[in-house]
Amino acid sequence: MSNVPATARPKLVAGNWKMHLRIATARALAEQAAAAAAEVAGPDVAVFPAFVHLATVREALRGSRVALGAQTSHEKQEGAHTGKVSPEMLADVGVTTVLCGHSERRQSGETDQMVRALARAALRAGLTPVICVGETLAEREADRTEEVLRRQVSVAVDGLSSDDLSRVELAYEPVWAIGTGRTATAAMATSAHRVVRDVLVSKFGEAGLGPRILYGGSVKPSNAAELMNSEGVDGVLVGGASLEGPSFRAILLGAVRS
Ligand code: PEP
What is the pTM of this model? Predict the structure, then answer.
């Protein structure tokens, strides 16, 4: 495995709101995230509301340093794709970053190749793709974690230029840790992140050191700081614990104090 030197990458705390909230509660949560972000100079902050809440959340975040993200997009720019939303539409509404290949979408049919197409489409539209990767429990128990991560990352970034890669982020999210309350240990996260980084560096050389790699999977105030400070972890992608203003704030402030 390549010897990967530590590089200064600003941390990121991101909240994936999934299919939760209503307009009023999404607005209130966005206001709380903006207020929490204003309390600290770093890390970077982003929230990923449902499509129907994007415009409301954009207004609530106006003037704040919280980035607006979307949970997925379509690969095409426009066309007869009923129910789909293109990355260009997302950019038009003020989105700057989009999740690609979240495990909840891979479980309903998104393949590695589709995730690559989605990441490329996001880049085309000027968005930052956050490419999500991670092994299932069965894959971990079969000692296939490294193989799965290598495949998912290699396919997702295949064909990108170094310049493209500089606009990409990744999230290691072990499927068995998402929404389950089971969290990877710091050692597990570090070892998985090392594999992801190694794929990037093997393919892109020094440019492979650029992208942030987040950890996601049952992150909460009590474990966020330890995970965030694990070697090779550049931030956290938080699901359930991002849906309460105080816990998202605690994660954010803990990241700074630790
Ligand atoms: C996620 O959905 O990306 C996630 C990490 O969820 P949770 O924090 O609830 O496990």
Answer: 0.96
